[in-house]
Design a protein that fits this description.
alpha/beta, Aspartate Aminotransferase, domain 1, Aspartate Aminotransferase, domain 2, 2 domains, 5-stranded mixed beta sheet, globular
Length: 462
C-alpha cells in the first residue's frame, strides 16, 4: 500500500479566475473524432482540465503582470532586455544573452552554428523539436542516457544522467571531428521528467574538456532539476537553488532556454553563454531570423515578465509546492496500481501506455489511444509521448518504436488546485478499470515533420 502524501499547500492565493465547464459526454465523443483522435487538434473550449503541456500555460504573478505595464517597446536598446540580461547573469551565471521568441528558435540558431552535415549530437535522450533541429542541418541525434531511464519501474534518483561508456563509444565509432557538441537536457522530458545529478554534470565537463568538445544545455526545466539535486544529492541539502543553478551552468559552454516553463511566462526564450564566439555567431543570426539582438522576437513587456519569472521560478517554497503537486497526482495513481513512470518527475506524471493497454499492438499506437480515451472519458487533455512523437527513422523511413510508450499528464504551474488533481486521478483510475474495452487507432494522415502535432487517426474495432 502506497502512503499518499498530504496535498501540498499552495504558496500563493488566487486573484483572478477563469470559468471552465465539463463538456457533455456526447460533445466529448464528437470533439475527439473531429480532432482525428489527436488531442493537439481539440478546441480549447472543449477541454475541462488542460494538462497537454506545461509550455506557456503557467499563471503569472502580480509582480509579473505589474512588469508587463513597464514594457519598453523601443526597437533597439529596450531597458527590459537589460533587466533580462541581469537576471540571467544573477541566476544562471552566464555573461551573454541572445533573446528569442521561444525555445525552438534558440535550438535553431545553436544548431545552425554548431552542426555540420554528417555530424552527431549525443544527448541524454531525444526531445522532438531538438531532434528535428539537429537533423535539419544534416546532423543526427544519438542517445547517451543511462539504461535506467528506459525502465519505467527503475527508481534511480537521477535517470537523466549521461552514460559515459555510450558517449565514448560514439566518439570511437564516428571520430572526434564528427561530434558537433554534447547536448544535455535538464529534467529529461521523454524519460518522465527525470533529473541529472551535479556529479554527472561535473564529470561530463571533465570528460569533454579532455576532447575539447563543447557542452550545450537545454535548461528549460533547470530550476526543477536544481530542486531535485537539493532534495536527492548528498552535500546539497541546504544549498540555495540559485547557487545550485550557478554551479550547474558553470559546467557548460552555453544553453538554450524555452522560458515558457520554469520562467512562468506564456512566451519567450533565449540563448545564454559565456563563450564570446557562440554569442557573436548567434547574435548575428538572431537579427536574420527573429529580430534585433535586444528583443529577439519578444515584446519588451514579455522580456520583463520573463526576467521576473526567472527569479520567481527559483524560489525554494514555490519549487517544493510545484514538485509535490505533481508527486501528489502520481501517488494517487500509484495507489490504484495505474502503471506510471517512477520516480515521479518534476513537471508531469507519465502513464506507461504499454502496461495500461497491453491488448494493443505497437502499430495501434497505445499512447495516442490512451490520450484520446482519457479526453473522451473526462474532458482532461493529455498527450502522447512515444512512437508517434519520435516519428520515423530519418534514413530508413521506418517507424521507430521506443522502449517507453507514454501518456504525459503535464501540470501547468500555479494554475490548477489539488482538487483538480484528484479529479484527474479519479478519471484515469476509472478508465483503468475498464481498459480492456478501449480499441486501438489507425493513423490516416501523417505530416512530414513533427507528426504528433497534426497527425490524424481513426478508431479500430476490438
Amino acid at each position: 500500500m502506497i502512503e499518499i502524501m498530504q496535498p501540498p499547500v499552495e504558496p500563493f492565493k488566487i486573484k483572478v479566475v477563469e470559468p471552465v465547464t465539463i463538456p457533455s459526454e456526447e460533445r466529448r465523443k464528437k470533439a475527439i473524432r473531429e480532432a482525428g483522435f489527436n488531442t493537439f487538434l481539440l478546441l480549447s473550449e472543449d477541454v475541462y482540465i488542460d494538462i497537454l503541456t506545461d509550455s506557456g500555460t503557467s499563471a503569472m504573478s502580480d509582480n509579473q503582470w505589474a512588469g508587463m505595464m513597464l514594457g519598453d517597446e523601443a526597437y533597439a536598446g529596450s531597458k527590459n532586455f537589460y533587466n533580462l540580461e541581469k537576471a540571467v547573469q544573477d541566476i544562471l551565471g552566464y555573461k551573454y544573452v541572445v533573446p528569442t521568441h521561444q525555445g525552438r528558435a534558440a535550438e535553431h540558431l545553436i544548431s545552425r552554428y554548431l552542426i555540420k552535415p554528417g555530424q552527431i549530437v549525443p544527448r541524454n535522450m531525444y526531445f522532438t523539436t531538438s531532434k528535428m533541429h539537429v537533423e535539419i542541418p544534416g546532423g543526427k541525434m544519438v542517445d547517451t542516457v543511462i539504461d535506467e531511464a528506459h525502465d519505467p519501474e527503475n527508481l534511480h534518483p537521477f535517470k537523466g544522467n549521461i552514460d559515459f561508456e555510450k558517449l565514448q563509444g560514439y566518439i570511437d565509432e564516428y571520430g572526434l571531428d564528427k561530434i558537433a557538441f554534447v547536448n544535455v537536457e535538464m529534467n529529461v522530458n521523454m524519460a518522465g521528467g527525470q533529473p541529472i545529478s551535479m556529479e554527472n554534470l561535473r564529470k561530463l565537463r571533465e570528460f569533454c574538456d579532455g576532447y575539447k568538445i563543447k557542452v550545450i544545455y537545454d535548461i528549460t526545466r533547470s530550476s526543477e532539476n536544481a530542486y531535485f539535486i537539493r532534495e536527492r544529492e548528498k552535500g546539497y541539502e541546504n544549498t540555495p537553488i540559485i547557487d545550485i543553478l550557478n554551479e550547474m551552468m558553470s559546467y557548460s559552454d552555453g544553453c538554450i532556454h524555452s522560458s515558457k516553463k520554469d520562467c512562468l511566462v506564456n512566451i519567450g526564450g533565449f540563448i545564454a553563454t559565456s563563450d564570446k564566439e557562440i554569442y557573436e555567431a548567434t547574435r548575428s543570426s538572431v537579427v536574420i531570423y527573429e529580430g534585433l539582438h535586444t528583443y529577439g522576437g519578444m515584446a519588451g513587456r514579455d522580456m520583463e515578465a520573463l526576467a521576473r519569472g526567472l527569479r520567481e521560478g527559483t524560489q525554494y517554497e514555490y519549487l517544493k509546492y510545484r514538485t509535490n503537486q505533481v508527486r501528489y497526482l502520481g501517488e494517487l495513481l500509484m495507489q490504484a496500481n495505474v502503471p506510471v513512470v517512477k520516480p515521479i518527475g518534476g513537471h508531469a506524471v507519465f502513464i506507461n501506455a504499454l502496461e495500461f493497454l497491453p491488448h494493443l499492438q505497437r502499430e495501434q499506437w497505445p499512447g495516442q489511444t490512451l490520450s484520446a480515451a482519457i479526453y473522451e472519458h473526462s474532458a482532461v487533455r493529455t498527450m502522447e509521448r512515444g512512437a508517434v512523437s519520435i516519428g520515423r527513422d530519418s534514413q530508413t523511413g521506418e517507424n521507430i518504436f521506443p522502449p517507453l510508450e507514454l501518456v504525459r499528464l503535464t501540470i501547468p504551474r500555479r494554475v490548477y488546485t489539488n482538487t483538480h488533481m484528484e479529479y484527474v486521478a479519479n478519471s484515469v483510475i476509472d478508465l483503468y478499470e475498464r481498459r480492456d474495452t478501449i480499441p486501438g487507432l489507425k493513423m490516416i494522415y501523417e505530416p512530414k515533420h513533427l507528426r504528433f502535432f497534426q497527425a490524424r487517426f481513426e478508431q479500430m474495432t476490438l
